[in-house]
Specification:
single chain; alpha+beta; Phosphorylase Kinase, domain 1; Transferase(Phosphotransferase), domain 1; five-stranded antiparallel sheet; three-stranded antiparallel sheet; 11 helices; serine/threonine-protein kinase; transferase; Mitogen-activated protein kinase; nucleotide-binding; kinase
């Protein structure tokens, strides 16, 4: 539980109170009453809380010493910029970003999200039975949120069960946008590290220079298979092993299906893999709805140009009766997430401060 503590050095900031959770000091706005810690990792520590002004339960994430690592600072800034513009039922809502007492020298960032009960990773790993309707509703919501993001020119690039938050009524929301990107003017996307390996599309494993929204569709396919089988379909130990597992299941590819590989060395490697006839997905998931198997097969296609799109997936017979285009309008305008990857700390700090001010316009005259 959250334990009230005295401020460090006995000096507290105005409008703040102090709590200890999991040996982590939380300095949070007095309007929030912390309840209990709910998760921690490389990103920081998350606790549940209550907004005493609205009586709404929230999740408060503390990112400690955010500028210690410039890459992590850029990820935080990118998520702030994106979530301020995105409003969709299947995307996590960022409710608030707490203002530090000064714009120069602050180290920690506190993000306030809507509170969800768990994530899809924990559900899959649990003993909780998952019906065909559960699976269908999860995939529908994931595709629905993804269609909105893609319409805003956003690639998530790190879809996995742990980044899909779920409530007790099975509502699903996509989170963690630190690796998200938008299209460059030439239509290409950045090619640095993307996607946790088990959910990484072949074109990324093969270091292709140009990729698009189909990488997110591949990740959805991997998540879909994991819900059906209650375990990852491609649990590779490293990149080359990941490719071998994919070919073992999908089968060896025809020459025409390798034309998208623009790296000659990568294409040669694929051709050296032992011949595989592949495995019928209906044999891997014998209890699954035949329509589910058909949709999964269309997602897990080696050649990205032949992979089903998000819109096509939503219109697939498997999701009949769930998708209504008139109730799922696209984003009103594209979002630009392009940031100078070489930006130094002072500029990142200033841009982060400006994002915070969007939630606290009254603080614009705070002495920095």
């Amino acid at each position: 539980m959250a334990t009230p503590v005295e401020p460090p050095n006995g000096v507290g900031a105005n409008g703040k109170h102090y709590f200890s959770m999991w040996q982590t000091l939380f300095e949070i706005d007095v309007k929030y009453a912390p309840i209990k810690p709910i998760g921690r990792g490389a990103y920081g520590v998350v606790c549940s809380g209550l907004n005493r002004e609205t009586n709404e339960k929230v999740a408060i994430k503390k990112i400690h010493n955010v500028f210690e690592n410039r890459v992590d600072a850029l990820r935080t800034l990118r998520e702030l910029k994106l979530l301020r513009h995105v409003q969709h039922e299947n995307v996590i809502a960022l409710k608030d970003v707490m203002m530090p007492s000064q714009s120069v020298g602050f180290k920690d960032v506190y993000l306030v999200y809507e509170l969800m009960d768990t994530d899809l990773h924990h559900i899959i790993k649990s003993s909780q039975p998952l019906s065909g309707d559960h699976c269908k509703y999860f995939i529908f919501q994931l595709l629905r949120g993804l269609k909105y993001l893609h319409s805003a020119n956003i690639l998530h690039r790190d879809l996995k069960p742990g980044n899909l938050l779920v409530n007790s009524n099975c509502d699903l929301k996509i989170c963690d946008f630190g690796l998200a990107r938008t299209s460059r003017s030439n239509g290409e996307f950045m090619t640095e590290y993307v996607v946790t390996r088990w959910y990484r599309a072949p074109e990324l494993l093969l270091c292709c220079d140009n990729y698009g929204t189909s990488i997110d569709v591949w990740s959805v396919g991997c998540i879909f298979a994991e819900i059906l089988g209650r375990k990852p379909i491609f649990p590779g130990t490293e990149c080359l092993n990941q490719l071998k597992l994919i070919v073992n299941v999908l089968g060896s590819q025809q020459e025409a299906d390798l034309e998208f590989i623009d790296n000659p060395k990568a294409r040669r490697y694929i051709k050296t893999l032992p011949f595989s006839r592949g495995v019928q997905l209906s044999r891997l998931y014998p209890q699954a709805d035949p329509h589910a198997i058909d949709l999964l097969q269309r997602m897990l296609v080696f050649d990205p140009s032949k992979r089903i799109s998000v819109t096509e997936a939503l219109q697939h017979p498997y999701l009949a009766g769930l998708y209504d285009p008139s109730r799922n309008p696209p984003a009103q305008f594209p979002i630009n997430l392009e940031l100078d990857e070489n930006m130094e700390e002072p500029m990142i700090r200033e841009m982060m401060w400006q994002e915070m001010l969007q939630y606290h316009p009254e603080a614009i005259n705070i002495v920095t």
